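Ticket #4471: complex job returned nothing on first submit. Input attached below:
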Amino acid sequence: EAGVTQFPSHSVIEKGQTVTLRCDPISGHDNLYWYRRVMGKEIKFLLHFVKESKQDESGMPNNRFLAERTGGTYSTLKVQPAELEDSGVYFCASSRSLAGGDNEQFFGPGTRLTVL
Amino acid sequence: DAKTTQPPSMDCAEGRAANLPCNHSTISGNEYVYWYRQIHSQGPQYIIHGLKNNETNEMASLIITEDRKSSTLILPHATLRDTAVYYCIVTRDDKIIFGKGTRLHILP
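Support reply: We reran it on our side without changes. The output follows.
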């Protein structure tokens, strides 16, 4: 079974540019999560999809961030326009179900974003 | 804020059991205890979880006290590859709120 994959692994952009991160969850996983770690800080939750619907987007920092999951498969996270403080590692995770406590999340390797 | 308290760092000799404690005194009845770890800058890795019974899998054992206010993750025979930051998380099957975790150093 393939794990969670993320693309690109690294991205270096200039302030004001747009970047789109992609996450492919494990096949059959309805739940998809985005997290990020900015330098020196803890990993923070951004949002949670159940299939194609946004279940919880309370962690999205501002309206420069737009997440989509069309068709309930892969997800994209767009940052437009990027600011210096958006630099960090963005992780995606997926899980099968929220029922019964068996909601272990499987994480991708992350996308390291650097905004210059 | 994270609902758990963990020591910032611990050392363990290679081959010995690593026992990582976690306090979660405000845990509610429907919340599970999960453990994840992050090795270097890789994505976090799920280790184990439980509700109130002790659990064991191929990676570790989880001991939860009877009052559920604390737990211990046990790596039975630590290796150098177990060097990582270990996160104890309390959740109702929802988003993960990461704290600072425990940085475990395995000493050769």
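Chain A touches chain B at residues 4, 33, 35, 42-45, 48, 56, 59, 89, 91, 93, 98-99, 101-110 (CB under 8 Å). Closing as resolved unless it happens again.
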